[in-house]
Structure prediction request, 511 residues.
Amino acid sequence: MTEPARKRVLTASILHEANSFAITPAPLDHFRRQGILEGAEIPARYGATRTEMAGFLASGAAAAWEMLPIIVVPCAPAGPVSAAAFAWFRDRLAAGTQAAGPVDGVLLALHGAMSVEGEPDGDGALAATVRAIVGPNIPISITLDPHSNISDRLAASVNAISAYRTHPHTDHFEAGQRAAATLARAMAGEIHPVVHHVRGHQLRGFDSARTSPPDGPMRRALTLARSLEQADPGVIEISLHAGFGLADVPHAGPSVAVTGNGADPRYTALAARLVRFAWDERHNDTVKMHRVDDALAAAAAIPPGPGPVVISDFGDAPGGGGHGDATALLRAILANPPPNTVFVSIADAAAVQAATAAGEGAELPLELGGHTAPAHGGGPIAQRFRVLKLHSGAYIHEGPYTPGVHGNFGPSALLECNTVRIVVTTFQRNILDLQQLRIFGIDPQTCGLIAIKCMDAFRAAFAPFSRAMIACETGGVSSRVHTSLTFHHLRRPIWPLDPDAVVAAHAGYTP
Ligand SMILES: [Zn+2]
Prediction:
């Protein structure tokens, strides 16, 4: 008796979230310095992480599939991907897919908010590239970030969509396993998955996908989605997407994808029902934004106790494509420093070079930060700084956000000014892992105040020991105040840029 042939499964992970308003480009070097992997490097480096790719590989090992990993491009949000970098990713993916020969299925990890110079829909272009090579009958199952803007082309190019169900995102691995489970059923001929996708009439929704608030809109939408899945055995998965509102592309904003067994209008109706839920909850935002002075006053009013107060620099968050060097919050802190304060971080390669040349213990004048776009979040701070520590800037996430993944600030320095310790890095990175402070000798739990460049992702690691978390709108390009940004390519009308009544009439919603 001969063994049945092992299923051959092609896999790749190419993740990017592009802020259309960021002026920092994303050339190939931007991705290379965070560690692009190919072929056999992928299981060696990613097998022990908690990423979607690790979920794919674990599922493949359990099912004895022959896994064919092609490429991993780690997520490092910035501006749109340069045309040359994107062509490189796409060509490596296409060449790997062609070289793999016939496959039984495909697992892709995409972000869903990748735009490219000259191409508003990078994710759709990648999925369509793979589809064109493997043909129409090979199932393609993908994971997405819930901050994805899903184009019609992306939805039509794949058979199944599984977005993460947590924000901060701590279930990349589980999303990968779910995508693989659907692929297994499709490869066995048990189901014929088809994506039914409905886009809303909003730029943001589902409370930005936050799942920390126990009774927030996203948790309730997820609960509803699970009950709708259970009520209909034809529903394979309902995937919810809050969208990424800092993308000036026609398809930006919240959407719902129902992966059904075969094509059927009832699946589209389920997606529309959840899109309507997002509309009805559009004003329900669980994080209150503070202006800079209000945030510092609110922090000062928190009763003393163990653990830090964390102020997030929401307007200049590298995780949302912020430049990572805006100074409005740091300037206010330096003017009236709360005790035992750490600011993490300012991206300023020239400042790091000067600090490195001066050496640990030296004091030097700097024009720190604010060089990229002074009009968006504040220009350079001219002060004298003491160099407390120099570091390579390499770290490994301890989690709960993608534990095991390597990160890289580039050469970095811990500086001090007016008693405030400031982490200064070469590259901008979202701050979401305690290791990003510990490598500089900072114990986050013993700080009084931590000011942090991040939107929401830090909450998973910092909430357990923080006295309070305060969100601060600082005027950078990841600000939520969309009225200060000009959209040229977005479909209209859309909420909140156009009046409720106009959007509701366009959508056909009765009050
Ligand atoms: Zn996200």
Notes: Residues 8-280 form a domain with the Rossmann fold fold (CATH 3.40.50.2300).
